């Protein structure tokens, strides 16, 4: 598996761009949820299974928002191309309540002219330079960026949660922002695709699992305490919720797809 990424990537619309090329058949690998929206292009034979183990259709070009973990099985000469975006972009593109789109791989041609999608797909088939990939995507999709970039009320709250590393209670949101807890709940399900509580837990988990992956912590108990978990049992529950496995299984599991994903910065600032 060849993982192509530019750690210095900056763009006014995309948070990150990654290409993964498979040079041999790969066993099933888990893809965690990072709380973002993705526009993705699939080349070749790649199978996807949801968190219930059910096989799902993978369109050639699709958009997906925050949801549960997936597993994918990729075959030789196949490839993924992934454009990472803020989570509210799914709602801006589809105009559909994001919770209703949870765990769905939505064909982008439902919202972008089919000829444009096909042209972009073909033009990106053999391109491995992140700079060139982004340039081609801009040429095809730029006219949509203004509408897709419209800020939603949840954006500021999401950034607050990210900055706090998910270490806060839901009530703090209504104390800090001019919305009731019920309004924030409705807002998040519509625009983010998850409840505020689940999103907070997801953000904290994404921070701590990156620390776990680095293997620089003095002890697991210290790391757990640093991220405001009650105890290891509490941490294990988040492992099952977001990765569908135990900490032990995670440590013993060979998953270069997840490892490469976790090696990137969790919060990525836009160019402007």
From TrEMBL:
Pfam families named among the record's database cross-references: HTH_18
Molecular function terms from GO: DNA-binding transcription factor activity; sequence-specific DNA binding
Keywords tagged on the record: DNA-binding
Domain HTH araC/xylS-type: 152-253
PANTHER family linked to this entry: ARAC-FAMILY TRANSCRIPTIONAL REGULATOR (PTHR43280), HTH-TYPE TRANSCRIPTIONAL REGULATOR EXSA (PTHR43280:SF2)
Protein name: Helix-turn-helix domain-containing protein
Species: Polaribacter cellanae
């Amino acid at each position: 598996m060849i993982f192509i990424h530019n750690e210095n990537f900056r763009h006014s619309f995309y948070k990150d761009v990654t290409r993964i090329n498979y040079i041999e058949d790969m066993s099933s690998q888990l893809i965690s949820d990072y709380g973002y929206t993705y526009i993705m292009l699939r080349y070749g034979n790649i199978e996807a299974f949801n968190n219930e183990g059910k096989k799902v259709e993978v369109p050639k070009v699709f958009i997906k928002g925050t949801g549960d973990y997936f597993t994918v099985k990729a075959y030789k000469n196949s490839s993924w191309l992934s454009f990472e975006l803020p989570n509210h972009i799914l709602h801006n593109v589809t105009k559909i309540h994001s919770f209703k789109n949870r765990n769905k791989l939505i064909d982008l041609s439902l919202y972008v002219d089919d000829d444009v999608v096909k042209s972009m797909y073909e033009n990106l088939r053999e391109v491995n330079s992140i700079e060139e990939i982004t340039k081609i995507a801009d040429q095809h999709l730029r006219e949509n960026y203004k509408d897709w970039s419209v800020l939603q009320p949840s954006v500021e709250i999401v950034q607050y949660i990210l900055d706090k590393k998910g270490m806060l209670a839901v009530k703090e949101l209504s104390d800090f922002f001019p919305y009731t807890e019920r309004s924030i709940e409705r807002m998040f399900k519509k625009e983010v695709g998850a409840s505020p509580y689940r999103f907070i837990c997801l953000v904290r988990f994404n921070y701590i699992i990156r620390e776990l992956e680095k293997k620089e912590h003095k002890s697991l108990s210290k790391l757990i305490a640093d991220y405001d978990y009650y105890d290891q049992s509490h941490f294990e529950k988040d492992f099952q919720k977001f990765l569908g496995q135990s900490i032990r299984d995670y440590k013993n599991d060979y998953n270069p797809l997840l490892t490469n994903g976790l090696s990137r910065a969790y919060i990525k600032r836009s160019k402007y």
